[in-house]
Amino acid sequence: MQYIRNDRAVEVLAAHYGRAPLAVVRSFGCQQNVNDTERLKGVLLDIGFSLTGRAEEADLILFNTCAVREHAEQRVFGNLGALKALKQARPSLLIGLCGCMVEEKSTIEKLRESYPYVDMVLEPNGADRLPDLLVEKLTTRKKALRVPPIRTEVVEAVPLRRESAFKAFLPIMFGCDNNCAYCVVPLVRGGERSRAAADILEEFKALVAAGYKEITLLGQNVNSYGRGTEEKLDFSDLLKMLCEVPGEYKIRFMTSHPKDATRKMVDTIAGSDHLCKHLHLPVQSGSNEVLARMNRRYTADDYLALIRYAKGACPELTFSSDVMVGYPGESDEDFQKTVELVKEVGFTQLFTFIFSKRPGTEAAEQPDDTPHKEKSDRIQHLLQVQDEMIIKLAQPWIGKVFTGLVEGEGREEGTMAARLDNNMLVEFAGDEALLGQFVPLRIDAVKGAVLKGTLA
Ligand code: SF4
Predict the structure, then answer these.
(1) Which member of 138, 174, 338, 449 has the lowest number of beta carbons within 10 Å of its beta carbon?
(2) Cβ-proximal residues to 282 (8 Å cutoff; 6+ apart), any chain
(3) pLDDT at residue 254, as a whole number
(4) How far apart are CA 321 and CA 341, in angstroms?
(5) Does residue 342 sit in the same domain as residue 418?
(6) Closest CA to 124 of 37, 31, 206
């Protein structure tokens, strides 16, 4: 399916506002949502809106939401509450909710009860449908507050307003077929559908030609890319195809699923300088009992076997992961197995979460009698272990020179931050003129999860 500009929307908006209406679009949650937000902005610009960061002057405010944890939802409702006075002061202001939260019945019920001033909801990956929704709203004044159908098709050529001029997200697939017991993604984003490799290649070539230096391929489970497509390319084949494009760029990708991550993929990473030597591989737990209840479909031994192979096949490869603590029924022994696994692998980044019960998931029905205090003690302990691990891991890098992409300002005055191939961040003395460039950096020290360096 191809995106086509909605000329009716262009006419209705021009007639209604008599000027370029202003929109605020805020993104909550993951990289996939950031990229969805870039498409929401692209479509709004395409039908005549201008973008602003100031809610008080906006004609339309859209929140692109995340439902992965309860905390993420509370943040959205908190921000929605803050818009009530603005809507009362300017009833013509349109407010809309997009993204994963709107696929939950509980969200729609809460909007009707507590946030009746929200005008519309739009499903994840629904940017191309936004013009119709605006036309319906402006011409019928009807309120569209019902759970929208989940998108099942892939829409190509949707315009984007990218956040960065040198780093880009490039989705290769949408949805997920894995049904991990704690996860809402399949319930709100639907089943897997991969983009055609030819469409991905075309977008990739355009990004390289436009000077993008880092392109991150996105998918809930990139390792199952290609299932159901005519081309029958798997993820490693796709990586090889993209790496044949000439140019100065680096490729990253997320998220991998350990049950589908292969030695072929590791060999492909080892075989190309375009592929960053970093693998984000969420393990979630080191206990086989917990992994089974999570329906992750791999064991800790499977996971460690792939890591050991990768360390042999590509010694400079680094790893990051997601770990969930306090999953229903997790015993102290289970948790200790997670700590042991974290110590064995040696992750450069570890994203840790306390289990959050999600409506409609299998895990929400699993008995959970571990006190919250015990769960937060476990996560504190894990963070401490990780802090010690990263210092040990980084020692061999001190004094060595690595190439990094300068991606922003450092935390200290007069410093910039660059991301290395292995995904480590280095802060060094420098200025904005270096933004978006690959620079050689000598590593001088380790400060927590960030390295200190000098331009070499
Ligand atoms: S792989 Fe599991 S955790 Fe990841 S999006 Fe799919 S269902 Fe959720």
Answers:
(1) 449
(2) 255, 256, 257, 258, 321, 322, 323
(3) 97
(4) 11
(5) no
(6) 37
How far is it, in rounded angstroms, from Cα 43 to Cα 130?
8
Query: What number does the ligand 1 atom closest to the CA of 255 have?
Result: 4
Do 389 and 277 fall within a single domain? yes
CA distances from 67 to 28, 147, 376 (A): 9, 14, 21
Q: Which residues of the chain have pLDDT under 50?
A: none
The DSSP bridge pattern shows strands 349-354 and 318-325 to be parallel
Residue of 69, 134, 62, 142 lying closest to 97 (CA atoms): 62
**Residue with the nearest Cα to atom 1 of ligand 1?**
178
Write out the residue range of the structural domain in which residue 131 sits: 7-140
Burial, 389: exposed, middle or buried (Cβ in 10 Å; 0-12, 13-18, 19+)? middle
Q: How far is CA 44 from each of CA 21, 415, 440, rounded to the nearest angstrom?
A: 9, 36, 40
Q: How far apart are CA 58 and CA 25, in angstroms?
A: 10
> Which residue is it, tokens 């031994």?
301
**Does 265 share its domain with 178?**
yes
Q: Distance, CA 107 to ligand 1 centroid (Å)? A: 21
7: nearest Cα among 132, 144, 127: 132
Same-domain status, 119 and 172: no
Contact 323, 382 (CB under 8 A): yes
Q: What domain count does the chain have?
A: 3
DSSP states of 421-433 = TTS-EEEEE--GG
For residue 127 the two structure tokens come to 């940017």
At residue 69, the pLDDT reads 87
Q: CA quadruple 278, 169, 350, 336: dihedral positive or negative?
A: negative
Mean pLDDT of the chain: 96
Q: Is 183 in the pocket of ligand 1 (CB under 6 A)?
A: yes
Cα 182 to averaged position of ligand 1 atoms, centre (Å): 9
Domain with 445 in it: what CATH number?
2.40.50.140
Side by side, the strands of the sheet bearing 167-171 are 167-171, 214-218, 250-254
Place of tokens 């940017």: 127
Check whether the bond before 255 is cis (ω within 30° of 0): yes
Residue-wise pLDDT tens digits, 284-339:
999 999 999 999 999 999 999 999 999 999 999 999 999 999 999 999 999 999 99
Atom of ligand 1 nearest to the CA of 257: 1
Q: 130-140 and 7-17 helices cross at what angle (nearest 10)?
A: 40
Distance between CA atoms of residues 22 and 19, nearest Å = 9
Which residue CA neighbors atom 8 of ligand 1 most closely? Answer: 183
How far apart are the CA of 178 and the centre of ligand 1, in A?
A: 6
